[in-house]
Specification:
Mean pLDDT of chain A: 88
Number of helices of chain A: 15
Domain Lysidine-tRNA(Ile) synthetase C-terminal (chains A, B): 365-432
Protein name (chains A, B): tRNA(Ile)-lysidine synthase
Strand content of chain A: 15-25%
CATH superfamily of the largest domain in chain A: HUPs
Oligomer: homodimer
Distance between the termini of chain A: 60 Å
Keywords (chains A, B): ATP-binding, Cytoplasm, Ligase, Nucleotide-binding, tRNA processing
Radius of gyration of chain A: 32 Å
CATH topology of the largest domain in chain A: Rossmann fold
Strand order of the largest sheet of chain A: 3-2-1-4-6-5
Helix content of chain A: 40-55%
Subcellular location (chains A, B): Cytoplasm
Largest interface: A-B, 42 and 42 residues
Largest sheet of chain A: 6 strands, mixed
Number of strands of chain A: 22
CATH architecture of the largest domain in chain A: 3-Layer(aba) Sandwich
GO molecular function, one term (chains A, B): tRNA(Ile)-lysidine synthase activity
Chain lengths: 449, 449
């Protein structure tokens, strides 16, 4: 078997994990992997010209065992003469809930970075091995995650490096035996314990009957997937940067038609992520792809406050400007009122008759956006305006923009949707004109951006 | 549970598997999957406006059992009134060798296409299910195949379609039970029986403890991989077509530097495949990537007869012209001989003295390419020319092009490598000039293409 030290040096070289003069903080749980990693890096520190320290996070989740682990790493680092930082963390909202491990993990990584910063270090070295990678990939494949899941964790990401990336568990075990290195049962690695154990104990040994070099196969495959991911993401970034301006992404439909549907989906996801910091689900992406094939103006609101739409020439993603409520009092005629979607003009004896002159002279009228509790009167019944708009399939996004005409507290007109008609020779009438939506949905940024 | 018929109709629609008026040949082993497929398509034939027939290939590999299966499908098709073609095939080089199933499979698919053609049909429908896909993906992941392996088989490829692509084994079993459909144990599905059984019986049930919808997860993941593959291959095809001319692929180095390394690797593989009909291994691809980073002229011969090289401005792949042996007799002076790599000139009393005038007048000299058995004479020993060239690190590709100068059966001169010097006032001398390799390695196609 290849010497473990040489193998790790190769990994460090292959993925450019550590540069000369770096300060490397080893995340030390006390388990076999992290202890091996610390032992190796501590031995290699002169050769690599690096400074090495360790950090241990005690989550205090398992009482005495946690204390034992902390005590163990303290003694180990003392005897190896490695500076050690110990952080005791109370995971908020404790208990043995399913999420506690995910929370603890996030908390741990946050602590690693904090300690790294205060130590003025460069890198945090994690003890994950090719065996962990194999289990992660199988687990993610089983759960059904996307490309990122299938390629598993990375040899390097941000300040985190994984020098044991290409090392198998057996190699760690041999190294520990040969070098008589003490360790505790890795207590910080509780996450998804049940599922990981199924994989580690039941699945992997059977798969190794088919291919004894299972970990190497997974390493090769994840390498291909990492390369693909890198390629796709560089193509995506080029396109997103080219068409993203000030929190608004607009790409010509003609360009969309030239790029591969897969690339478009990824561009869509990335542009939406940058604008909204939210994720577009697989289903929403499919939906967007479908509207692209349709004629005319189409829009989708994947999350409140964010809009994806296509019009004649452009496909766009933008923040919806937070809409201002409006209210205009009308008491002399003729008057034209500008509202977001409609221009309304009121005349004497012209247009749709919605009010008698007498009523108008007594109460005037108001053009406003809808209010909670609004109701519409019909012949024999009344109905909540909200319910009415839903029944009429008025999209949520424009409900606040529709002008409501009321007089003395009663709704008498909504363009295209509702009109109380009066039958009187002397009446106040309304005429309305729909504003072209496209004129404000392209080119300029929305108010809020 | 969703009605199986509706589910299959959705699959057919989603992947555009069958068009109206098609003639569909169902590959019928007699096993549950193929019998279910035939039952479904036979029921749907009016709705889909298709004509349905079946084909059974009897490999006669398992004696009576093979006969029983053939008999079974004959009776089934008679009772369902489906035209049936039966092909009896003797797999050449029989025996229970490991490869017999792969050979049988290839033979079977060939027969399917033959029958399809003689029936003037359009499509061959195969009974593979989402459960088969799950096993295939897990198997390929374990063995360590690339992207194509991870995405498993396709819903449609060439004339072959898989209408049960999204159907799970349990759904087939329920359908068979509900509709009281007879079947035999699927005898044609012996391939990699041991490994498949490990997956089917041992692995999949455990993974389903983690995710009961395992097949759906795999379907989603393979869909992503198919999309990526399609995207990558369209990008690759664009580049290969742009730079492949008459069995020679030449792409400017400046372009290579602009495209992503992953894309370049795929372009390299595809261009090499088109020129040589051979595959470039992962290692060879890495090697090519490395020479690109180096200065000056570099070349690689991945397979005999095919050359990959980079020079100042271009990176190229080409067929090596098959080299013609050469031999020139020299008997008057001065004479200049043109050989592939060198121009040699022979003079009296000028140049490197390799021959006395007397020797020359008696035997003349020959300039030729090397011959098997050539040996070189040194002071106290002789050495095989082949061994000598290897020791001198002369690349294989140019060994046949090197000019050998001999007189009366003895090698006396090889440019840059060997010279027998004579010490005589009256001598025959040689001068040589290296031809610029680059002048024939760019631009023109090689002789053979």
């Amino acid at each position: 078997m290849e010497n473990l030290r040489d193998k790790v040096l190769k990994t460090i070289d292959k993925f450019s994990l550590i540069h000369k003069g770096s300060k490397v903080l080893v995340a030390l749980s006390g388990g076999p992997d992290s202890v091996t990693l610390l032992h190796l890096l501590n031995q290699l520190k002169d050769r690599l010209s690096v400074e090495v320290a360790a950090v241990h996070v005690n989550h205090m989740l398992r009482g005495e065992e946690s204390e034992r682990d902390e005590q163990f790493v303290r003694e180990l680092c003392r005897s190896w003469k490695v500076p050690l930082f110990v952080e005791r963390v109370n995971v908020p909202g404790i208990s043995k809930g399913k999420n506690v491990e995910a929370v603890a993990r996030r908390e741990r990584y946050r602590k690693f970075k904090e300690v790294l910063e205060s130590w003025k270090g460069d890198l945090v070295a994690l003890g994950h091995t090719a065996s962990d990678l194999t289990e992660t990939v199988l687990l993610n494949l089983t759960r059904g995650t996307g490309l990122k899941g299938l390629r598993g964790f990375l040899p390097k990401r941000d300040v985190f490096i994984r020098p044991l990336f290409e090392v198998k568990r057996e190699e760690v075990e041999n190294y520990i035996r040969e070098n008589k290195i003490p360790f505790v049962v890795d207590s910080s690695n509780l996450e998804t314990k049940y599922e990981r154990n199924l994989l580690r104990i039941e699945i992997v040994p059977i798969l190794k009957k088919i291919n004894p070099s299972l970990e190497d196969a997974i390493l090769r495959e994840t390498e291909i997937l990492r390369e693909i991911e890198d390629f796709v993401s560089s193509e995506v970034k080029n396109l997103v940067s080219a068409y993203l301006k000030k929190e608004k992404f607009c790409i010509p439909i003609s360009t969309v038609k030239q790029i591969h549907p897969f690339l478009f989906s990824e561009v869509l996801r990335e542009a939406y992520r940058r604008i909204s910091t939210k994720e577009l689900s697989f289903e929403k992406v499919q939906l967007v792809r479908k509207i692209l094939e349709k004629e005319g103006y189409r829009e989708i609101f994947p999350h409140r406050g964010f809009k994806i739409y296509k019009e004649q020439e452009f496909f766009c993603i933008e923040k919806e400007g937070k809409f201002e409520k409006f209210s205009f009092k009308v008491d002399n005629l003729p008057t034209t009122v500008e509202t977001p979607l409609y221009r309304l003009s009121f005349y004497k004896n012209r247009g749709i008759p919605i009010l008698t002159v007498r009523e108008f002279e007594k109460n005037g009228l108001i053009v406003r956006s809808r209010l909670p509790g609004d109701r519409l009167m019909f012949k024999d019944f009344s109905k909540k305006l909200k319910k009415f708009l839903i029944e009429k399939r008025v999209p949520f996004s424009i409900r606040d923009k529709i002008p409501i005409v009321e007089t003395s507290g009663r709704i008498i007109f909504i363009p295209n949707l509702y009109a109380r008609r009066v039958n009187s020779p002397e009446f106040i009438g309304v005429e309305f004109e729909e504003k072209a939506e496209s004129s404000n949905s392209r080119g300029e940024d929305s108010k809020e951006s």
